[in-house]
Specification:
With about 130 residues, the protein is mainly beta. The chain has a single domain, classed as M1 Pyruvate Kinase, Domain 3. The protein has an eight-stranded mixed barrel with strand order 1-3-2-6-7-5-4-8. This is Phosphotransferase system sorbitol-specific component IIA.
């Protein structure tokens, strides 16, 4: 199993969970614009670890929030660029096989887990 991306949640905006009913989590690195903070799950964007093999995220990779796994079903054309540069993507837990928007990462249709400060968000290739 290769780790492609790994980060740690540093803050959760007051309104971030408002999007859960739409099966959406908005990730943003700690460089988030002030006007977006309350809507995002903030993280330290790319923990620099030697074991990470930074490759583009692909359909079939696995998103892990702590140890809960979600198969990636679609990758918007800007997901890899935005995640690398800004730490910003939208994760949609709807199982769609076609990316709705360029910055959206779709994963299998499962309930969004409770996300807390200190939680790991990891993408792996099995």
């Amino acid at each position: 199993m290769n780790t492609i991306y790994e980060t740690i949640v540093t803050k959760i905006g007051a309104k971030a969970q408002d999007f859960y009913s739409e099966k959406i989590v908005i990730l943003f690195g700690d460089n988030v614009p002030d006007e977006l903070i309350e809507y995002c799950v903030l993280h330290n964007n790319n923990i620099d670890k030697a074991h990470i093999d930074y490759k583009n995220i692909e359909v079939g990779d696995i998103l892990k929030i702590n140890e809960e796994k979600f198969k990636i079903t679609a990758v918007g054309e800007l997901v890899n660029i935005n995640l690398k540069n800004l730490g910003h993507i939208t994760i949609k837990f709807d199982g769609s096989t076609i990316a709705e928007l360029p910055g959206t990462l779709h994963v299998e249709n499962k309930n969004i887990p409770i996300i807390n400060v200190g939680d790991a968000i990891v993408i792996v290739r099995e």
